[in-house]
Each structure stands twice: as structure tokens, then as C-alpha cells.
Amino acid sequence: MKPPRRPPSNSGRPGSARPGSGTGSGRSSPDRASGPRPSTPRHGEAPRGGGERAARVAQDSSPRRDDTTLRAKPRSDRPVSDRPVADRPVADSPASDRPTSQRPGPGRKRPERGEAERQGSEREGKGRRDDRAEPARPSRTPRHAEPHGRAAGPREAPGNSLWIYGLHAVAAALGNPARHLRRLLLTEEAEAAVATRLKRPWALSVERTDRSRLDHLLGPGAIHQGAALLVEPLAPPSLQSAVARPGPILVLDQVTDPRNVGAILRAAAAFGVAAVITQDRNAPEETGALAKAASGALEVVPFLRAVNIARTLVALRAAGFWVVGLDAGGGVLSGRALAQRRVALVLGNEGEGLRRLTRDTCDEVAGIAMPGASAQLESLNVSAAAAVALYELARS
């Protein structure tokens, strides 16, 4: 009996293998077919052999980009940009890679788009100021400025110096050898008027000016009459030197208005007062307005400043003065009754009068006789009361 006939083998016939033929062992599969295998061209490289076929094979072998597939991918699967961090736009770079000036600080909100554009325009403007005018900041009040909201004093007084203005005040200061003079500004008319009050030569040369310049220099409200003199404040004398002078002494208990103090100095010069004493605090300093109201008396009457008024009154009592507080709550001031005594007259504040401690330190309290006084008019201005009281003392 003959054995069954086997089908012919394909191993010895190259190129004759069909897909799917062979046994289950896989030895005759198309991937393991014998014979030379064609070389696969690399990406971007034309296959060997050239010609239209080579170009067509190279075109078919290049990878294609499926835009539909890329667009269909979710955002989280997109690859991170391979550009360097420095070349990426700010919006693509993480917050840690941004410059410090572009990172939102802790507790600060990220500026909106409109705000970011505004900040960018400000940076490009390099700090240019807004065209809108800013409100003027008030300057520091000079030492010689007027208190209580009055017109400001001279604007160009350097250091501790002050401007004295007015014909009488300037002529008196110009003739005072104890004054340290710095500048003298006069108009043509004022120079002639000062020359009638004080003979030449003067200790200081004249700077010719006009009224508009003095108005700007001295500030509004200064009645300068075309004359201004820059001086240093007078050195205050001692209490012992004031006591040694003849005449009564005036003590001002917190009189705050410089014009009132100037008017009191003018009355003191008229009635031969030895000195005027004021408190170191809560009292005006030597200013142009005070000198103008004094009309030259500031150069004649010694002007002292005391730290404590009550202790000063005790010292005056020890020096032989009879201390009289001027107030309507006491008796009537009589010059004849005080003819044999040397008086220190104390005047209180414009509104509240004498303080309690000052009143208790006085030897007596007396007021001015006013026959026509009424409920609407029961007192006088402090400078007017000082003039009337000094007149009454001078009658003795």
C-alpha cells in the first residue's frame, strides 16, 4: 500500500509563499520567508533606485499629521511647548518662571486686563506726573508766624530773624544800638519819611524796592508803609535789671494776641513803665505785627519772658512791689491810695481774665471804675484796660 502524497513544500521556492499558508508552527509564515528582504527607507530619505517610483515610495513613507486627531485631544494631553522658558510668552510660562515684578504678591489680586494696560502705560511714561494739579501742601509754620489763623508773617525771614515793618517801628529799630540789623528795604517815599525821624548816617545801607515786592515779602495784611527791616530778636533783660529801673511793672498772664501785647507796650512807654513781663508759654513771641502795634515801644520798654508767673509775682513782692490784679471782682483801682507804693499791675487773658493761682498770689484785686457799664458792656479790651489803669496810677 502506498503512503499518502504530501503537498509540495514552499520553502525551496522563494516568492511563491501565500499569506496564511503553512503549518501551525509558523516556520513558513510570510515574516520568516527566505530570500533577500527590501530595505526600508528612513524618515525623510529617498529609497535607493531613484525615479518616479522612488519619489512615490518616499512620499508614501513620510508620516502624516492628522489635524482632526490633534484637535480632538483634550487640553491636558497637549505637549508642553519645547521652546526655552525665556522665549515663551508670559501667559504660557508658569508663575515660578515669571519675573518677580510680574508675579502677583501674597494678598494682592491679579490686575485685570484694563488695569494691566494702565500700569504698562504708566511704566512707559517713566514716572510722568498727572496733568491734574495736586492740592498744595501746607508748609511748616515759621517761628514768627501769627497764631490763631491770622495772616501769615514774612515769608523770607531766615533762621531766627524777623521782619519789622512800618515807619515808626523801622526807625526805632534802626536807631537802637542793641539791635542786630541785617537788611533795610525802603521805597523812595519811605526813605524820606524815615530820614525825618532818624538822622543819617544809618548803621545799614538802604536797598531800594517797591510796594509790590514788600507785599509779596511780608505777606497779606502787613501794613508796611513802604519800610521793612530784617533784624535779630532782642536779648531779654533780667528781672533784676528791670526792677532797678524806675516806674511800675506790667505782668501779662497769658495775653495771647500780639497786637494787644504791642498796644500794651505802647501804653507802657507812654506812662514810664519799667518793664513788661509775659509768660514764656501761651504768649506771642516777638513778631513784625507785635512791633508794628508797639510803634517803636519794643525798642524802649524792656520785654521779659517768665517761665512761671506766680513765682515771678512772689519775687516782685520780695523786691518791694505791691502786686495788684486787675479784675472787676475786686474794689476800685485808686491811684491816690497807691501813691506811696511801687505797683506791679497784673492783667489777665483776653477771655478768661486772671487765673486762680495768679489771683491768689496778688496782694489785692481791683477793677477800673466804669460809670457807664452795662450788661452788654461790662469790661474793656486788655490793652485799653492797661492804658486806663496806668493813667490812674500816674494820677497819684
Question: Can you lay out the helices and strands and say which pair or pack?
Answer:
Layout: H1 51-61, H2 67-72, H3 113-124, E1 162-165, H4 167-174, E2 181-186, H5 188-197, E3 207-208, H6 211-218, E4 227-231, H7 239-243, E5 249-252, H8 258-270, E6 275-279, H9 288-294, E7 303-306, H10 309-318, E8 321-332, E9 342-347, H11 356-361, E10 364-367, H12 382-394
Parallel strand pairs: 2-3, 5-6, 5-9, 6-7, 8-9, 8-10
Antiparallel strand pairs: 1-4, 2-4
Helix pairs in contact: 4-5, 8-9, 8-12
Question: What does the model show?
Answer:
This protein is α/β, with parallel strands linked by helices and 396 residues long. Among the domains are: 162-231, 60s Ribosomal Protein L30, Chain: A (2-Layer Sandwich); 239-370 and 378-394, Alpha/beta knot (3-Layer(aba) Sandwich), CATH 3.40.1280. It has twelve helices and ten strands. It has helices spanning 51-61, 67-72, 113-124, 167-174, 188-197, 211-218, 239-243, 258-270, 288-294, 309-318, 356-361, 382-394, and strands at residues 162-165, 181-186, 207-208, 227-231, 249-252, 275-279, 303-306, 321-332, 342-347, 364-367. Helix 8 (258-270) runs parallel beside helix 12. It is elongated and about 55 Å long.
